[in-house]
Structure formats: structure tokens, C-alpha cells
Design a protein that fits this description.
The chain is mainly alpha-helical and 124 residues long. The chain has helices spanning 15-29, 41-48, 52-64, 81-103, 107-122; strands spanning 37-38, 68-70, 76-78. Helix 1 (15-29) crosses helix 3 (52-64) and helix 2 packs across helix 3.
Length: 124
């Protein structure tokens, strides 16, 4: 398994976001299995022709999202992203449910708001 990243310098999407989204997708799909060791920040920056700070920013975002984990001097590895994503989604759903209840919305109105937001986020 190797990390397959393509950065499009002409894209309107920032390079760090291109890197972040591609690593996240490969982790989600299983193309990069849990425990796969990622290149160092400097190594990947050199390989992709990016600044080390750009790669570091992407790695930080991936770590916050629970996609990767840094184990000190041992390196950076793909984490059990599905578990972290599911926990974060459950926490967000719980916070949403509490908030709409405080606002006085009934279940149908709350569900409708979620469906509208999902349509907007996923395009349709």
C-alpha cells in the first residue's frame, strides 16, 4: 500500500485541502489501512513539491479529524477513522437534538432542517 496523492496547482482548492481530502478518502475507503505509516512531513512535502508547512497543516487537520495519529518519534499512522468519525457524528447529532429542543422545534421540523442541510452539503 502506498500513498497516492496528486496535487493540482491550478485547482481553486488549496494544496493542503487537496492533500487532506485525498488522505481522508483513502483511509475511509481502506486503500490506506489502519496502522499504515505515512511519510514524514518533510518527506511528503519534498515528494509532492509542497512547503513543509502545507503538509504539516494537512496532517494537523487529519489528526483533529481522527483520520491519522502521531506516535511521537515512531511516526504518523492511519487511525481507525471510521470509529472517530462515527463518534464525532454522534456527538454532533446529540448537540443538535438538544439545541433544537431548546429552540422549541418539534421532531418533524428538526428532521426537515437536517434533510435541508444534507441536501445542501451533498448537492441534491
Amino acid at each position: 500500500m502506498t500513498l497516492q496523492i496528486t496535487i493540482d496547482p491550478a485547482s481553486a482548492t488549496a494544496p493542503f485541502e487537496q492533500l487532506r481530502s485525498q488522505v481522508a478518502e483513502q483511509a475511509r475507503s481502506g486503500a490506506l489501512p489502519v496502522g499504515h505509516k505515512l511519510p514524514t512531513v518533510r518527506g511528503l512535502a519534498e515528494e509532492l513539491g509542497l512547503a513543509a508547512n502545507t503538509v504539516a497543516k494537512a496532517y494537523r487537520a487529519l489528526e483533529v479529524d481522527g483520520v491519522i495519529e502521531t506516535r511521537g518519534r515512531h511516526g504518523t499512522f492511519i487511525a481507525a477513522a471510521g470509529d472517530a468519525a462515527a463518534r464525532e457524528a454522534a456527538a454532533a447529532a446529540s448537540a443538535y437534538a438538544q439545541r433544537v429542543r431548546r429552540l422549541g422545534l418539534d421532531r418533524d421540523a428538526a428532521r426537515s432542517a437536517v434533510e435541508d442541510a444534507l441536501r445542501a452539503a451533498y448537492g441534491g
